[in-house]
């Protein structure tokens, strides 16, 4: 039987800082919890994480939590870089739809997808020789299928299951009306194909207040430390820690029916990415139009 988790380090008052966070702060906080969760999970581990358990970067994170540091206050360097890139880029640049740069294309070519490039070479060789009457080359059906598959789907299937970019080609000879109609059709059906749905709405302060009220971050942190140390924490103890002043409600029921499902949703659906995307939009849209 697993040893019981020592929670003497935990203080719900340390989470008061969450009430002051902007959307960037929430993106950072949830992004850190996402990394904590998947750093402990070999199954469905993101491509950029080692699957050793525990992954070394988790140890200093756990040490900070035990010291009461739940938010480090650092800026999202990646987000700042994207903001500058969009503002200084072409006038048609936007946060969610943009042209593929030559550099980005070069990175795609460097993807570790040998079977995809082999398939492309096979199809290219067949195309070059198909008009040769003496050619006996017969196209391989499997390789042809790989070569003709959307590249971002090949990336997802090959090595990056968390890939969130999609690359499209637009025929500028078509009318704007046709392009917009076709794009809506493509977007709707592509999201279904890759099972990557968008957030239902923009996030507001009411969402952040909801996460605070139901102690989503404290719950995630306690679960993280519990799994990291291989020790158990009962729902009853957890509920008492994250809802210490709630005497008139069934704290365990609140934990079981609200906190845990919401926490699972935020992590599984990578809501920190949606928050970052929204923040990027809010930071650049007005400036672009100015």
List the main descriptive attributes of the protein structure presented here.
single chain, mainly alpha, 2 domains
Radius of gyration: 24 Å
How many strands appear in the DSSP assignment?
0
Our measurement of the CA-to-CA distance between the termini, rounded to an integer number of angstroms, reads 63 Å
- Counting DSSP H or I runs of 4 or more residues, the number of helices is 13
Task: Please outline the major beta sheet.
Answer: none
Beta-strand percentage range: under 5%
Instruction: Give the helix proportion (percent range).
Output: 55-70%
Q: Secondary-structure element order, as H and E? A: HHHHHHHHHHHHH
Broad structural category:
mainly alpha
**How would you sum up the global shape?**
elongated
The total number of structural domains is 2
User: What ranges have pLDDT less than 50 throughout 5 or more consecutive residues?
Assistant: 43-53
Average pLDDT across residues? 83
Secondary-structure map:
Blueprint: H1 23-39, H2 58-66, H3 77-88, H4 102-109, H5 114-129, H6 141-148, H7 151-158, H8 176-194, H9 205-213, H10 216-229, H11 235-242, H12 251-268, H13 271-289
Helix pairs in contact: 1-10, 1-13, 3-13, 5-6, 10-12, 11-12
Would you write up a description of this structure?
The chain is mainly α and 290 residues long. The chain has two domains: 154 residues, no CATH class; 96 residues, no CATH class. Helix content is 57%, strand content 0%. Helix 1 runs parallel beside helix 10 and helix 5 crosses helix 6. The longest helix is centred in the middle third of the chain and has 19 residues. The protein is elongated.
